[in-house]
C-alpha cells in the first residue's frame, strides 16, 4: 500500500487514487449521519466548478429542488475565480406577467478558486422559501434533473439515424431503465433532443448530397441540379432531374402531377415529385424537389426550376 494516502470511508487509500467529491460522498455515506448522501458544506473542495455543480445537483435531487448556474467573476486575465450555483427559484422578474417559478429563493452554493486551481465552498445557504418536490415525477420537472447524458444522447442519435420513430425511441429508453412505460427523461426532452440532432446533422448531410449530385452529373451530362439559397447562403430548396427524365418529359410531358405528401422520417422535410405517364400507361418520374418549407414562394421556385430544366411548360399540371 502506498504511503501518503488519505482516509476514505475510514480506510486509508493510496494518494494516487484521486477520488472525486461524488465518489467520496458515496463511499462515506454508510458511516455518516444524516438523511442526505450528498451534503454541501463550507470548506468542501471540488476539482472544478462542473464537479461542484454535479455534487450540488445530486444534493438538490435528494432535497427536491432544481439548480442552475448563477453569477460568476473573472480576474484581469479572464480566468474565472468565483461561481455561484443557485436554486432554480432564485431571483424575480417584475416584467413577467405570467406565472413563474422564480420566488426570490436565496438557497445557493458559492465556489471560489484556490491557488492550486481547485474550488472550495465559501458560502452555503440551505433554506428555501418555496415548497420542495416530493415525488420522483415532480423532481424530474426541474431542468437540472432532466438532462440527457452523453451516452443516452449518442444512443438516441444512432436510433434516429436509422429512422426509428420518436415513440419507439422512448420505449427503448424505458426498457433500458427496467420498464417500457417508464422513461428517465420527459418525452418532450427526447423530442427536443431529436430536433437538435436533426438540425446539427442536416447541414452536413446537405453537403454530402451536393457532393453526390456533383459525382452523378459527371456520369450523366444531361442531369440538372438547382439550388435555392436563403440570405445566409444556405440551401433552402433543392431540385434535380436526370437526363433520361428530361428525355421522357420531351415525349410524355403534356400532363404532369406534383405531390408533396412524402416526408423524410429523420428531418420531416417535404419531398415533391413531378410524375407523368408514358405510352405504356406506366408512371415516369420527371424530377424531384426537396423543400424546407411549404410556402407559396417555395412552390413557385420549384415550378420555375422544373420548367427551366425541361425547356417547356406542361399543358396540364395536377397537384395534390
Short account of what is shown:
The chain has 8 helices and 13 strands. With about 325 residues, it is α+β, with helices and mostly antiparallel strands.
Describe this structure as you would to a colleague:
The protein has 320 residues and is an alpha+beta fold. 34% of the residues lie in helices and 25% in strands. It contains eight helices and 13 strands. It has helices spanning 21-28, 49-63, 136-139, 150-161, 166-176, 187-219, 243-252, 296-310; strands at 6-8, 11-13, 45-46, 67-74, 80-87, 108-113, 119-125, 224-229, 235-241, 255-263, 270-277, 283-291, 316-319. The strands form three sheets. The protein has a six-stranded mixed beta sheet with strand order 8-9-12-11-10-13, with helices on both faces. Strands 3-7-6-5-4 form a five-stranded antiparallel beta sheet, with helices on one face. Strand 1 and strand 2 form a beta hairpin. It starts with 5 loop residues before the first strand and ends with a strand. Mean pLDDT is 81; it is low at 1-8 and 12-17.
